[in-house]
Amino acid sequence: MFGSDKNLVWKIETPPGHSSPVIVSNTIYLTSFEEKALVTLAYDRRSGKRLWLQRLPRERTAKHNSLNNAASPSPAADAEGVISFFPDYGLIAYSPEGKVQWKVSCEPLVNNHGMSSSPILTSGLVIQVLGGDTGSEILALDRHTGRTVRRRLRPSLTRRLQS
User: With 0-12 CB in 10 A as exposed, 13-18 as middle and 19+ as buried, what is 155?
Assistant: First the structure.
């Protein structure tokens, strides 16, 4: 049987955020937010010990539905590290040791519900869907450099605002 106090290996309190934890080997990655920072964390899977915490200055605050927040998108991770997407900034990649590999800021999008699209890693690319009420696009970035490989605008795939 499994429960809040039964058959646990470890238990920790995490900072606020809605992202799902992502596990690669013995590392758990998670995102969070503070009033003035966007946070990526790494924990040891076996002990729950925090390995590192990195803060990215929060330069803007997007509108969020009450069921959403600045750390709703789940990170994407592989043996080379973790990529976090924050609607209040864009994308940032960290090495397994927590060193910044690259950053890509994204223009703010108007999204009445808030952004919760998580990055996807595939074939050496980071794919990020940016969906908004007034414009949407898909970015394909080089996994190692963050350089834009392809950008596809999706002007017809927006949420229709009703008056």
Answer: exposed
**Cα(147)–Cα(7) distance, integer angstroms:** 45
- Name the nearest CA neighbour of 114 among 24, 29, 19: 19
Neighbours of 138 (CB within 10 A): 16
- What's the 3-state SS for 35-98? CCEEEEEEEECCCCCEEEEEEEECCCCCCCCCCCCCCCCCCEEECCEEEEEECCCEEEEECCCC
Distance of alpha carbon 113 from alpha carbon 135, whole angstroms: 14
The C-alpha atoms of residue 44 and residue 79 are separated, in whole angstroms, by 14
What's this model's pTM, rounded to 2 decimal places? 0.86
CATH of domain 22-153: 2.40.128.630
Average pLDDT over residues 92-104: 97
Give the C-alpha separation, 18 to 3, whole Å.
21
Per-residue pLDDT, 2: 67
